[in-house]
Amino acid sequence: MTAAKIVYASATGNTEGIAEFLEEQFKALDVDVELVEADDADEDTFEEGDICVVATYTDGDGEIPFDLEDFFEELPEQELEGKVFGVVGSGDSELYPDYFCQAAIDFEEAFGKTGATKGADLVKIENAYDDEDEVVLKAFVKAMVEATA
To answer: Is 94 helix (H, G, I), strand (E, B) or coil?
Structure first.
């Protein structure tokens, strides 16, 4: 059975909600999925997964959330060949137009150094997800699963 790991950081609950929605969608496609809070993520988190997902918000002026900093710094050193990755970001483009979803962009770049295959395009969500975002998130999950086939 295909296994997915979703690492997420959430300050307001928006990204946690997105991660839980992703979890439901993976389960609907018969994928064994585990949600991992940022504080619990380490360099071995993606070792047992076929699909590696990071869902993050952007802190302040484009920074990685504090509880994901160590994980982010260690990610490019991971050897994830044969695995599929994807990144989802939430942000506020009105308050932070210059840094909208910057942490998600940075995570996608870091994944590119691991040898993993990009399974779906980066998804940027304005604050909490809505009905329109659900369509995009479902397509993201479907693409990730298809990329493991």
So the answer is: coil
Cα(52)–Cα(144) distance, rounded to whole angstroms? 9
Confirm if 81 and 113 have CB atoms less than 8 A apart. Answer: no
Mean pLDDT, range 21-39, rounded to an integer: 96
Task: Give the Å distances, CA to CA, from 118 to 59, 88, 99.
Answer: 24, 12, 22
Residue 134's pLDDT is what?
96
Radius of gyration of the chain (CA): 14
CA proximity to 88, closest of 25, 30, 29: 25
CA neighbor of 140 nearest in space, from 100, 86, 93 = 86
In angstroms, what CA-CA distances link 9 with 54, 108, 118, 148, 149?
8, 15, 21, 25, 28
Give the C-alpha separation, 103 to 146, whole Å.
26
pLDDT surpassing 90 at residue 1: no
Q: What tokens were used for 25?
A: 């969608």
Q: What is the pLDDT of residues 73-93, one digit of tens each?
A: 999 999 999 999 999 999 999
Res 60: pLDDT: 85
| Separation between Cα atoms, residue 145 and residue 21, nearest integer Å | 15
